[in-house]
Amino acid sequence: MPGRTAPDTATIGDRQIDIVPLESIDYARLAAKEPAELEKLLDAARSPGFFYVDLRNNSTLVDLRELYAVAEQYFDQPDEVKMKNDRGGPAQRGYYKAGTQGEAFEIARDEIVQKQPALDGLLGDRAELLERFSTQCDTALRTMLSCLSDALGLDENDRFENSHRADQPSDCSLMMFNGPSKSKMADAPDNQHTDTGSLTLFYCDKWGVQLQLPETGQWVFVEPKSDQVLINVGDRLQSRSGGRLHSCKHRVTQPVDGFQRRFFVLYYLRPSKE
């Protein structure tokens, strides 16, 4: 089993914060099933359940940065334009307000591929980018799922891929989120949670993500890295693995006072529907 994770420190403004030294996985080596990279992946998925994936020299990083710019453009639109994508709340996806945390747009991968419902406006103009990027994310996370099956030595009938069939309907989805930091740290909402799905891909170029170390319960910040994405294990994968993989409690917050525009791009891999 992996050892305890000892925090590092960083200085943000005039404040020193604890940060978690997460493992960085080379995606090309992982896709090639290199044994050392499989071991790194398994150790990180066991504890803390968060890790970076290095996307340098990968076309996904180019599309991610382009979609990040699209997210900023989308949320800069007037509310009446965004509300055209309102479907009645988070359970129905589309555009919705997320209380005091911000606002979001979420679309199922099946909707993107099937082009139903059809997107219009800015998102309609960038539909090809949405489909290409969601395909890249879906492929990458399914590759990691397969690698975790290999690393755990699962029998054919027990492999994680069996409950994540790409040829079956699912609730896998792409999300863009607008969550600016607050003028005062004390006003940042407490949104600690675990993800309910299997694996989550997450990108933000600003400080704001904290995770709770499973060994000590300490909350530590995750350093944003421009050429890497964050991946975390969700509840369904923790359950499917019999607790051998860890769904880590985390939250979006801020290290210092001060309003700052902040956007997030996420892709959720969830089990296929029976």
Ranges where pLDDT stays below 50 over 5 or more residues in a row are none
* Helix-residue proportion: 25-40%
| SS-derived structural category | alpha+beta
Mean pLDDT: 94
Number of strands: 13
For the terminal residues, how far apart are their CA atoms? 33 Å
Give a verbal description of the structure.
With 274 residues, the protein is α+β, with helices and mostly antiparallel strands. It is 29% helix and 23% strand. The chain has eight helices and 13 strands. The strands form three sheets. An eight-stranded mixed β-sheet has the order 3-4-11-8-13-7-6-5. It has a three-stranded antiparallel β-sheet with strand order 10-9-12, with no helix packed on it. Strand 1 (8-12) and strand 2 form a beta hairpin. Helix 2 packs across helix 7 (127-151) and helix 3 (59-75) crosses helix 7. It is globular, with a radius of gyration of 18 Å. The mean pLDDT is 94.
